[in-house]
């Protein structure tokens, strides 16, 4: 089966004049989202725990990059102050995986960290970026959740629980902020070819892990970061001006 490649920057002015913040933007899906946004005309700021802390932004591809731990309120507050406003688009992409863990072998600290990075972060970035999002007039928040949030797998209780919670947070915020013209949506990727993939498979090489995941996907191949970025581009743009509280599955049919 020939699956065409994703046209990056097919609409070079779709996000012209918009400022976007992408957390987890230094790797994988977040990096592809930042690239798609830049190719679509946006000014993009990325935040990532993997960047060095500094008073000056780092250059990450073509974006300004700030160090931030999205699970930590002081760190997110500092990021929001550095980004300033107006902010038209906030993409919460930072996240951590869970390698298969039997529930009675799960450490409380590991459970709490997954919940903090994957869920508490959505609360913290919304709370601290709200003034900047309001200043944009109309704004869009896109949360990268997971198809495991709607189709859980064994041994992933913390990760699946965090992503199901992230979807519910998305829907609740969508209702809360609708009257203010701030749309909140989610994208649920299936297994995606990024460094994270090996985090689900006890460190097996990404290419090897990708092969076994592909066997479970109706379309027969795993998701590429660009596939997720294309769905995020739609939700972030004015093409989706009346779309809020929804979740787009980007998973080759896996969640059906
Ligand atoms: N790869 C997949 O198969 C897959 C599938 C479904 C959903 N997702 C979700 O997509 C998102 C992106 O994952 P990815 O595959 O690109 O992974 P990745 O590991 O390539 O990128 C994740 C990025 O998030 C950053 N990060 C981690 N913890 C952070 C923190 N506390 N604060 C700030 N930044 C932090 C990392 O440094 C990294 O740059 C995650 O939310 C993940 O759960 C991934």
How would you explain this protein's 3D organization?
It comes from Prosthecodimorpha hirschii. GO terms for molecular function: oxidoreductase activity. This is Short-chain dehydrogenase. Keywords: Oxidoreductase. The chain is α/β, with parallel strands linked by helices. The protein has one domain (19-190, 225-246): Rossmann fold (3-Layer(aba) Sandwich), CATH 3.40.50. It contains 6 helices and 8 strands; from the N terminus they run βαβββαβαβαβααβ. It has helices at 28-39, 73-83, 108-135, 157-177, 206-214, 225-236; strands at 19-23, 43-48, 58-60, 63-67, 89-92, 139-144, 182-189, 247-250. The chain has an 8-stranded mixed sheet with strand order 3-4-2-1-5-6-7-8, sandwiched between helices. β3 (58-60) and β4 form a beta hairpin. The model has no long low-confidence stretch (mean pLDDT 96). The structure holds nicotinamide-adenine-dinucleotide. Nicotinamide-adenine-dinucleotide (NAD) is lined by residues 23-24, 26-30, 48-50, 68-71, 93-96, 117, 144, 146, 189, 191-192, 194-197.
How do the strands and helices of this protein lay out in sequence?
Elements: E1 19-23, H1 28-39, E2 43-48, E3 58-60, E4 63-67, H2 73-83, E5 89-92, H3 108-135, E6 139-144, H4 157-177, E7 182-189, H5 206-214, H6 225-236, E8 247-250
Parallel strand pairs: 1-2, 1-5, 2-4, 5-6, 6-7, 7-8
Antiparallel strand pairs: 3-4
Helix pairs in contact: 1-6, 2-3, 3-4
The structure holds nicotinamide-adenine-dinucleotide (NAD).
Nicotinamide-adenine-dinucleotide is lined by residues 23-24, 26-30, 48-50, 68-71, 93-96, 117, 144, 146, 189, 191-192, 194-197.
């Amino acid at each position: 089966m020939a699956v065409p490649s994703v046209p990056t920057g097919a609409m070079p002015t779709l996000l012209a004049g918009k400022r976007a913040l992408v957390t987890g933007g230094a790797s994988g899906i977040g990096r592809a989202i930042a690239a798609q946004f830049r190719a679509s005309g946006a000014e993009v700021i990325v935040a990532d725990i993997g960047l060095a802390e500094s008073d000056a932004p780092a250059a990450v591809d073509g974006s300004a990059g700030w160090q931030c731990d999205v699970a930590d309120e002081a760190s997110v507050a500092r990021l929001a102050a550095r980004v300033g406003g107006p902010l038209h688009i906030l993409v919460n992409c930072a996240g951590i995986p869970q390698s298969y863990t039997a529930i009675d072998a799960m450490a409380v600290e590991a459970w709490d960290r997954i919940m903090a990075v994957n869920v508490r972060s959505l609360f913290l970035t919304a709370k601290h970026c709200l003034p900047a999002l309001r200043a944009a007039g109309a704004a869009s928040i896109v949360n990268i959740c997971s198809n495991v949030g709607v189709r859980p797998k064994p041994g992933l209780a913390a990760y699946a629980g965090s992503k199901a919670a992230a979807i519910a947070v998305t829907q609740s915020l969508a209702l809360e902020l609708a009257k203010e013209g701030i749309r909140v949506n989610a994208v649920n990727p299936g297994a995606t070819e990024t460094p994270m993939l090996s985090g689900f498979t006890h460190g097996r090489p990404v290419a090897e892990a990708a092969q076994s995941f592909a066997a479970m996907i109706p379309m027969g191949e795993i998701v590429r970061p660009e596939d997720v970025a294309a769905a995020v581009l739609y939700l972030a743009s004015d093409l989706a001006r009346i779309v809020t509280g929804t979740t787009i599955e980007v998973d080759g049919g896996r969640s059906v």
